[in-house]
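Late entry, written up from scratch paper. The run itself happened at the end of the previous shift, but nothing got recorded in the book at the time, so transcribing now.
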Amino acid sequence: MKTKERLYISDFIEDPILTYPSYYSLSKSMHKNEMLQASLEAIHTVEFSNYHQAKEYTQIFQLFDMGGFPIYKEHYVVGYFGGRMMYLESYGWKTMPITKDAFSMENWLIF
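Output as recorded:
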């Protein structure tokens, strides 16, 4: 059984603008993932200057291939695990429902 650790936002962001959720439950490897932390930092500081809107879906998958995490609707970090897109909530990764909005490139930010 894989154990999860809480990654508290206050542990790596001094003064977050968005304080909810205050932590994320992650595996040990994800807990230390700098690319994931950078995406979470962008969301919780509302600082997206290093990000730009995806022009096509291949850019999103290129970021996944590099080990990165795009941001969906400026609110969710998205990962790609086992052939499934998943978004991060406080209690861990959840399968992302693919709705019409998921195909609108204006909903995706990549770096």
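The longest strand covers residues 76-81.
(Scratch paper discarded after transcription.)
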